[in-house]
Specification:
Blueprint (H helix, E strand, L loop, with lengths): L4 E4 L5 E4 L13 E5 L4 E2 L3 E4 L9 E10 L2 E12 L9 E5 L4 H4 L2 H10 L6 E5 L1
Parallel strand pairs: 1-7, 8-9
Antiparallel strand pairs: 2-5, 3-6, 4-5, 6-7
Length: 127
């Protein structure tokens, strides 16, 4: 399960954790291979720390899931690297719905920290 598009920002590492995109009892029984000109394939995730020179570029990304019989699943998306100030001057309202990490404000605190940086959108969090 991958979205049609993933947006990345220079200076903020993007990650796709394999156990979150392939539903199975034990994801360790599978091999995950990310094919992309950007980023790197680790055992448990694909990660990409975009740089300023990546802004405006797009990278096709395919993730294959394999077992001893071959490819059992495959999905493709595109990673778009947008300029760090792409949302400057815009106002958005955000409601986060999630698990205990959301309830404990772990994810909301990080999102707020990122939005509070210079050249970003004005964020109002509700809920």
């Amino acid at each position: 399960m991958l979205p049609d598009a993933i947006y990345a920002i220079p200076g903020v590492e993007s990650n796709i954790y394999y156990k979150n995109i392939f539903l199975t009892v034990n994801y360790a029984d599978y091999i995950f291979e990310a094919k992309c000109k950007a980023g790197r394939n680790d055992q448990d995730r694909w990660r990409f720390p975009p740089q300023e020179e990546d802004a405006g570029k797009e990278f096709p990304l395919t993730i294959q899931v394999k077992n001893q019989h071959g490819i059992v699943a495959e999905a493709t998306t595109t990673v778009y690297v947008v300029p760090a100030d792409a949302g400057k001057g815009k106002n958005i309202t955000l409601l986060m719905v999630g698990d205990s990490l959301t309830d404990a404000a772990v994810f909301p605190a990080r999102v707020k920290e990122l939005f509070d940086q210079d050249n970003n959108v004005d964020l109002t969090m509700i809920g």
